[in-house]
Design goal:
The protein is of the alpha+beta class and 393 residues long. The chain has 12 helices and 18 strands. Bound molecules: flavin-adenine dinucleotide (FAD).
């Protein structure tokens, strides 16, 4: 067999997070020779710390929403062959305020709400932990979503790319420099005709000056794994609540969101100040992953706050009826963040793309981005609506 580092690849991917794996998958499906280089022994960033919630409903209208639909389809295609369990499907938004219901009604009437269904209070409360329907205004059921357990799904996807598609993985190895056809890594040089850099929120190791031009920052989120006290209870589907309707761009762009925000500012100011909203998802063992919160800084303090945890648990109880669950795990995670874009595809050289998801939606959009960027590199196809302004000088 050829020695690993002397092989020549069609594509080298920097980063084995979900975005890097999405590009590797898109290229492998075209029968290209692919190597993925990852500085850690296994992916350890946002991609394994998230909810594994592939979210369509609520994503920003247009490109992001379409990328989410496509990414959801790819997850559905690869999950079985890769041995990844789809833990849950769909989404239920459970709301307590008439202003929130008005947002859901407007959403359902838009083209994005076409397959979604408005719920009355009794339907919204169904299967939740004894939540009285009288406390609810109603809800929305979306069929689009699916949920995987990222901490096992991401390594499984990588293993499947290696086993079934012949993708090589070089890790742990930091890529120090990219100049196709050559890459310099801490494990030695590599040769590849094209390179995609998916560094997540590592802004300094490659193309730091280009990344700086986009004014990226980081967002830190707090997460919990919980065991419900109610024996045998399993959350019937992923749940979101009123607070999510003032966070997700697909809802916030609706005029109806303004009245909801005004009311939440009066009634839940600490939740808003900490960027707390609710996503609650369940695994086959009945444990829940619940979060999250949002703190923005160049280097956010990594310490999980007890107050933020209490705010998340408070919203969980209000939206699902689950009281005082056992906390099994606590963790924080960060992702790259920009105020004005959901993703960037930068073109530092003809055969190099730098791809960063900047809106916290990488599990929901990464496969579609991978397909677009690989098509652009290998077919010369202009990436649909993917062009980004050059970074400011
Ligand atoms: C707590 C939390 C919850 C979230 N929930 C969701 C969710 O439910 N749904 C959703 O769609 N999105 C969610 N997100 C966002 C999503 O996780 C991210 O958008 C996505 O994981 C980004 O993927 P990535 O591959 O770009 O980054 P990462 O996962 O950070 O991977 C980047 C990789 O690149 C490697 N790397 C960087 N530089 C180099 C180099 N020079 N050489 C070698 N390797 C390098 C790093 O080691 C890292 O492994 C969440 C994020 C967080 C933090």
């Amino acid at each position: 067999m050829e020695p690993f580092l002397s092989r020549t690849y069609d594509l080298a991917v920097v980063g084995a997070g979900i975005l890097g794996l999405g590009h590797a998958l898109a290229a492998a499906r075209r029968r290209l020779r692919v190597v993925v280089v990852e500085r850690d022994a296994q992916a350890n960033g946002a991609s394994v710390r998230n909810f594994g919630f592939v979210t369509v409903t609520g994503q920003e209208r247009g490109t992001t929403w379409r990328r989410a639909l496509r990414t959801r389809d790819v997850w559905a295609e690869v999950a079985g062959p890769a041995g990844i369990a789809v833990e849950q499907r769909g989404l239920r938004v459970v709301v307590r305020r008439p202003e929130a219901l008005a947002v859901l009604e407007a959403y359902a009437a838009s083209e994005m709400g076409e397959s979604c269904r408005l719920l009355n209070a009794a339907e919204a409360a169904e299967g939740l932990a004894g939540l009285p329907a009288a406390q609810l205004a109603g809800g929305l059921a979306s069929p689009h979503e699916l949920r995987v357990e990222s901490r096992s799904a991401v390594p499984r996807l990588a293993a499947w790319l290696a086993e079934a598609w012949g993708v090589d993985f070089l890790q742990p190895a930091l890529v120090r420099a990219v100049a196709p056809p050559r890459l310099e890594t801490t494990a030695g040089p590599l040769e590849a005709g094209a390179v995609v850099v998916c560094p997540g929120d590592e802004f300094l190791s490659l193309y730091p000056e280009r990344i700086a031009g986009y004014g990226l920052s980081r967002c830190l989120l707090q997460m919990l794994r919980l065991r419900p006290r109610e024996a045998g209870f399993r959350l019937p589907c992923p749940v979101m609540s009123d607070l999510g309707l003032v966070r997700y761009a697909g809802y916030t762009a609706l005029p109806e969101a303004a009245a909801l925000r005004a009311r939440l500012e009066r009634e839940q100011p600490r939740h808003l100040a900490e960027g707390v909203h609710l996503i609650a998802v369940a695994g086959a063992d009945g444990t829940l992953v619940a979060g999250d919160s949002h703190r923005y800084a160049a280097t956010p303090a990594p310490f999980a706050s007890a107050e933020v945890e209490a705010l998340i648990l408070d919203e969980l109880q209000r939206a699902t009826g689950l009281a005082e669950p056992e906390v099994l795990e606590r963790w924080t995670g960060t992702y790259a963040w920009a105020p004005d874009r959901a993703a960037l595809i930068d073109r530092p050289e003809a055969a190099v793309r730098l791809v960063v998801v900047t809106g916290g939606t990488g599990a929901s959009t990464g496969f579609a981005l991978g397909e677009e960027v690989v098509a652009e590199l290998f077919d010369g196809a202009a990436s649909a609506e993917a062009s980004s302004p050059e970074p400011a000088e």
